[in-house]
Amino acid sequence: MGKRRTEENGGLAGETQGKRVNRNYVLSIKQWIRYGGMAGCIAFGTALIFYQNLVVGCIAAGCAAAVYPLYKRRDLEAKQQQKIALEFKECLYGLVAALRSGRSLEGAFEASLEDMDPELTPVLFHEWQIIIGKLRVNQRIEDALEDFARRSGVEEISSFAQIIQICKRTEGNIAKVIENTAGLLQEKIEIQGEVQVALAKKKMEQKILNVMPVAVLSLLLLLSPDYLAPLYSSFQGRMIMTVCAGLAIASYCISKRMADIAI
Fold first, then answer.
1. How far apart, in whole angstroms, are the C-alpha atoms of residue 61 and residue 207?
2. Distances from the Cα of 212 to the Cα of 107, 144, 251, 253, angstroms
3. What is the Cα–Cα distance from 13 to 15, expressed in whole angstroms?
4. What is the sign of the dihedral through the CA atoms of 141, 143, 147 and 153?
């Protein structure tokens, strides 16, 4: 179970640790097989229920197995970015504390790294090491942060990097600005977490509603197959089933988009 969770989280606790973050999620061969096989089996069973035809079932299974892993990759990318954002929020606490103690921005990054737990923040711990390594070879902190923001694709990190760049250019009170910015970013990340918790119940209801048409049709086929026989023996019946299948797929896509709330 633990190994499976590691793969589904984009390998952040294992695969991503020790290598640079990349916003473009790459599915492993095992994930391709798992998600493709799962989608193919579900599509095959659903097509059999709607059409009672093995050829249609095999075609649906092949299409689903080829397309669903690409669709799933976007979800895994979003989960990866969400996890990085949560780790970034934790790292900001240490960075702000170091700045309050009077350290420079560069020194605050080194000090905050010492307080990090690599098991709780595996991605940011490695990325912080990369940033500090760049600082030690005289690269600018704003350039290092901008590179990290570009590779991670996390909006909060990108905003933070832009603010650092502005502060360095205008020679403002970096410690105060970063402290205020960190507070705002932390609040935003916390709100995003609360929204996800609030949507968890609705997402479960969404999954149940998406399964209900197939479940009801399966029950009718099991209890009263003669009642549905005209839908499988005539052209008009197959057209009706095709429309129903299309509506079921459309409702799934629409419900997924409705539950995707950006802050």
1. 20
2. 57, 50, 12, 15
3. 7
4. positive
In our burial notation (b when 16+ CB lie closer than 10 A, e otherwise), range 120-143 reads: ebbbbbbbbeebbebbeeeeebbe
Alpha-helical regions (H) of 52-154: 54-100, 105-114, 122-136, 141-152
* C-beta pairs of 170-178 under 8 Å, 24+ apart in sequence: 174/99, 174/105, 175/99, 175/100, 175/105, 178/95, 178/96, 178/99, 178/105
What are the CA-CA distances from residue 234 to residues 57, 218, 225, 239, 245 (Å)?
18, 19, 15, 9, 17
Question: What one-letter code names the amino acid at 110?
Answer: E
Residue 12, Cα to own-chain centre: how many angstroms? 12
The CA-to-CA distance between both ends of the chain, in Å, stands at 32
Using CA atoms of 149, 155, 156, 160 in order, give the dihedral in degrees to the nearest 10: 50
Task: Please check whether residue 41 is in contact with residue 61, taking contact to mean a CB–CB distance below 8 angstroms.
Answer: yes
Instruction: Give the total residue count for the chain.
Output: 263
For the CA atoms of the chain, what is the radius of gyration?
A: 25
Give pLDDT tens digits for 173-208.
Answer: 777 777 787 778 778 777 877 777 877 777 888 888
Give the phi and the psi of residue 132 in degrees, each rounded to 5. -65, -40
- Give residue-wise pLDDT tens across range 30-62: 989 999 999 999 999 988 888 888 998 899 999
> Tokens 């009672």, residue?
52
